[in-house]
């Protein structure tokens, strides 16, 4: 099972709660669709359901748009909740 770390170097595993503390620097092509989802997530806590090969934590964000959206967060954008 993959692990990653938060901005403070603490280990994160799937199933843990994390808090979004920073919106990542998104490429221009992603801003229109993705920025509102990341802004909705800012300051909120989520359960990690996957850690990818790049060490990004994947979480589901409800209510940013109709439905549910998954986002990937880099270690510098999160801390353990």
Tell me what you see in this structure.
This protein has one domain: SH3 type barrels. It contains one helix and eight strands; from the N terminus they run βββαβββββ. A hairpin with a 5-residue loop joins strand 5 and strand 6. It is globular. Strands 4-3-8 form a three-stranded antiparallel sheet, with no helix packed on it. Strands 5-6-7 form a three-stranded antiparallel sheet. A two-stranded antiparallel ribbon has the order 1-2. The chain is α+β, with helices and mostly antiparallel strands.
Question: What is the beta-strand fraction?
Answer: 35-45%
Strand/helix succession: EEEHEEEEE
Q: Gap between N and C termini, in Å?
A: 21 Å
Helix content: 10-25%
Name the CATH class: Mainly Beta
Under the CATH scheme, which architecture would be assigned? Roll
**Computed Rg:** 12 Å
Give a short account of the largest sheet.
3 strands, antiparallel
Mean pLDDT: 92
Predict the CATH topology. SH3 type barrels
Domains counted in the coordinates: how many?
1
Spatial sequence of strands, sheet with the most strands: 4-3-8
* Basic shape: globular
Supply the helix-strand structural class: alpha+beta
What is the count of helical runs? Answer: 1
What is the strand and helix layout of this fold?
Layout: E1 3-5, E2 11-13, E3 17-20, H1 28-41, E4 45-47, E5 50-51, E6 57-62, E7 68-73, E8 78-80
Antiparallel strand pairs: 1-2, 3-4, 3-8, 5-6, 6-7
């Amino acid at each position: 099972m993959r692990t990653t770390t938060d901005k403070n170097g603490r280990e994160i595993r799937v199933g843990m709660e994390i808090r979004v503390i920073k919106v990542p620097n998104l490429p221009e092509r992603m801003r229109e669709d993705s920025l509102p989802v990341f802004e909705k997530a800012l300051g909120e806590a989520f359960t990690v359901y996957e850690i990818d090969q790049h060490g990004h934590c994947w979480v589901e964000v409800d209510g940013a748009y109709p439905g549910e959206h998954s986002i990937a967060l880099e270690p510098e954008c999160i801390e353990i909740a």
